[in-house]
Amino acid sequence: MPSKSSTSGSSFSATLLFGLSAVLLVVCIMIDPREAFQASGQGLTVWWRIVFPALLPFLVLSEILLAGGFAHGLGVLVEPLTRRGLGLPGSYAWVLPLGLTAGFPAAASAAATLYKQGKISALEAEKMAASAHFASPMLIAVVVGTGFWGRPEWGLLLLAAHWLGGLAAGVTLHLLDRSPGPEPKAKPAVTSPSRPRPSRFRQALAQMEEARRADGRGIGKLLGDTVSSGVQISMTTGGYMLIFAVVIHVLTGILPGFLPSFVVAGLLEVHLGTYTAARLSLPPAMVCALLGALLGWSGICAFLQARSVLKPAGLGGTKYFLLTRLLHGAYAYVLTLLLWAPMSKWLPQVKSTTAEVDLPSVTAGSFPIPGWEQISGVVQAQFWLLLFLVAAFLVISLVYKKNAN
After folding, report:
1. Which helix (H) or strand (E) holds 399?
2. What is the pLDDT of residue 134?
3. What confidence tier does 358 reach under pLDDT thresholds 50, 70, 90?
4. For the chain, which residues make up each domain, given as ranges?
5. How far apart are CA 398 and CA 405, in angstroms?
6. b/e burial code for range 144-162 (CB count within 10 A of at least 16 → b)
7. What is the pTM for the complete model shown?
8. What is the spatial distance between Cα 311 and Cα 109, in angstroms, rounded to a whole number?
9. What keywords were assigned to this record (predicted)?
10. In percent, how much of the chain has pLDDT > 90?
11. Are 29 and 36 in contact (CB under 8 A)?
12. What SS3 string covers 64-99?
């Protein structure tokens, strides 16, 4: 057990480091305020036109369905499948599709809500938030594929590798985790010897009713709370993106000879990191693989966004989260290279590894932003995708139950 002196010493060192970093950032902004203002404006534009419209509707929808007990009823139906495959409760069947379609930190928000409701343990919530942490399909398919390259098929390749890599990372950590799993939070239905146990569907309806009664908010109060919570999380996300846009600008000016700009940007913030990496003069397959790794890692900014949602609920799991991100990035890098050749055959527009690629011309300091019509179309597609993934979970769980019997 660490002594009080060592704990206070480490705390003082962390405080000193944070203070010096803040002072250095302020000094750099004062030296060149015009460039810092442009960098912050770029981060704000990316948040307003890409992250905000793709995130807020799903945050509101998730909070409403969690308060109404939908995730709890769904969890009862798919509990055997998720427990056996991933070591997680059945409510993961809602958290995972939400993360796949809405992007971060939507899954972390749903996991924190389930934990505060007492439906899952702290360890389960941390594992859910880490394994369901995905980039938004709007970023991957629309911004990176269409905006950066003008080739949507590349975005589909990155999206497939991103999803497969994230699922592989979650399964890998489950197989390597030797810690005993916590007891399920859901209470089994009490039955007498002469009375048969209710069907799983009836148990799901009972769980939904129990969750709705426990929440107890009327429709007006519920809508007000969910919109307020969603806007707050979205604003926090935008604040992190704005700050990190300035930090990336400062660091790339301080460390021009030590680290390439795409490394600095990619480690810190995924939107600006992928934009910088897409301009590299490398073979297309290598650029795609590098972008897949950066999307899987997602950046320190995305990690802090998830932490800003988990920490107020009393959740940690930093080591587990970062390990999942490293595995996700590594799997996505390898899968992108493996999928390149098949995609080249199925989609003729995808170039070979030795072909030259004419990237869209983008002026210095600008960022390709989709139009509002394109954004609304993608958000609508994300809603349909969320519905499809949840339905797929139900179908797979029913098939699994039938084969198990």
Report:
1. helix 372-404
2. 93
3. very low
4. 51-178+198-404
5. 11
6. bbbbbbebbbbbbbbbbbb
7. 0.81
8. 11
9. Membrane, Transmembrane, Transmembrane helix
10. 8
11. yes
12. HHHHCCHHHHHHHHHHHHHHHHHCCCCCHHHHHHHH
CA dihedral of 354, 355, 356, 359, whole degrees rounded to 10: -110
Q: Roughly what angle, to the nearest 10 degrees, separates helices 92-102 and 106-116? A: 150
Looking at residue 254, what is its pLDDT? Answer: 73
Cα–Cα separations (whole angstroms), residue 390 to 148, 228, 354 = 31, 26, 40
**Tell me: the pLDDT tens digits for 256-291?**
666 777 888 888 888 888 888 888 888 888 888 999
What the block records as the tokens of 249 is 């600008």
Collect all residues with Cβ–Cβ distance below 8 Å to 58 and sequence separation of at least 6.
Answer: 98, 101, 102, 106, 382, 386
Read off the pLDDT of each residue in 292-319 and give the average, rounded to a whole number. Answer: 88
Gap between the Cα atoms of 36 and 59, Å rounded: 31
> In what helix (H) or strand (E) does residue 161 lie, and over which residues does it extend?
helix 152-176
> Which element (helix H / strand E) includes 101?
helix 92-102
Q: Are 349 and 149 in contact (CB under 8 A)?
A: no
Q: Please report the pLDDT score of residue 363 as a whole number.
A: 38
d(CA 159, CA 155): 6
Token pair 């399920």 is found at 184
Question: Is the Cβ–Cβ distance between 207 and 75 less than 8 Å?
Answer: yes
Mean of all residue pLDDT scores within the chain: 77
Structure tokens at 207: 């769980």
Take residue 38 and report the two structure tokens written for it. 């442009």
Of the candidates 136, 126, 146, 48, the residue with the CA atom closest to the CA atom of residue 100: 136
pLDDT in tens, 126-171: 888 998 999 988 888 888 877 776 677 778 888 999 999 999 998 8
